[in-house]
Specification:
191 residues; mainly beta; eight-stranded antiparallel β-sheet; two-stranded antiparallel ribbon; elongated
Length: 191
C-alpha cells in the first residue's frame, strides 16, 4: 500500500473570464496505490527458459475535487496509465550447432483497459489488448555478431497507446505499432 497526500496532476483548464484554455498544475488531493507484482523464471534444462510476469494494481484517486469544467469529482477514478492487470509470458529455446547457436524467442503481452486522463471519460479509455512477438537469431561460437529475424505484434492487433481530447476539444488517438517484421545484424566490439 502506498498513499499520497497533495498529489498533483496537469489539467487543461479554461479561464472563466477570458475563455482561454491552458495547461495547469492542479492539486488532485489524495491517491492510494495497492498492488502485487511477481516475476517467475524457470530453466528446466540449459537450453530452455520460461518467464512470466504478472502485475495486479488498484490505483485510484481517494479525494479529487476537480477544478475543471463542470467541477465533477474525480474521487474513486482510476489513475491514468494504471491498468488493473498486466502480464507477460515468454519462452526462449537455444539450439546448439557445430559453429554457433540458434536462439528462438516467443512472447505474449496483455494489458487491461486503462485511462489516459483523471476524468476516466469514455474518450480517454484505452481498450485492453494482447500482443504476440517472436524472434529467431544465429550467433557464432565466438559471440562476435548476431543475425536475427524478428516480428512484433505478429497477431496484427489494432490497439491504441493514447486516447483523449486535446485542449481544443478534438479527439486524439495515438495508435500502437502494426505488425512489424525485421532482420537485424549486430556486431559486438571488444567481445
Amino acid at each position: 500500500d502506498m498513499a499520497y497526500d497533495d498529489f498533483q496532476v496537469f489539467q487543461f483548464l479554461t479561464n472563466a473570464s477570458t475563455g482561454a484554455t491552458s495547461l495547469q498544475l492542479t492539486n488532485a488531493g489524495e491517491v492510494s496505490v495497492r498492488g502485487l507484482e511477481t516475476e517467475l523464471t524457470w530453466v528446466p534444462v540449459d537450453t530452455l527458459r520460461l518467464q512470466a510476469n504478472v502485475t495486479w494494481l488498484d490505483a485510484q484517486y481517494d479525494v479529487f475535487e476537480n477544478p475543471g469544467d463542470g467541477g465533477e469529482t474525480f474521487t474513486g477514478n482510476q489513475l491514468p496509465y494504471a491498468p488493473d492487470l498486466k502480464y507477460y509470458l515468454g519462452a526462449q529455446y537455444i539450439y546448439a550447432l557445430a559453429d554457433g547457436n540458434l536462439t528462438f524467442d516467443v512472447d505474449y503481452t496483455y494489458a487491461d483497459n486503462q485511462f489516459t486522463d483523471p476524468g476516466n471519460a469514455a474518450i480517454d479509455e484505452i481498450d485492453s489488448y494482447s500482443l504476440l512477438g517472436a524472434r529467431a537469431a544465429y550467433t557464432p561460437n565466438d559471440g562476435s555478431w548476431e543475425l536475427a529475424l524478428w516480428g512484433r505484434n505478429i497477431n496484427d492487433k489494432a490497439y491504441t497507446k493514447v486516447n483523449n481530447d486535446n485542449f481544443l476539444g478534438f479527439a486524439r488517438t495515438v495508435w500502437g505499432d502494426p505488425r512489424l517484421y525485421g532482420l537485424t545484424f549486430s556486431y559486438f566490439f571488444g567481445g
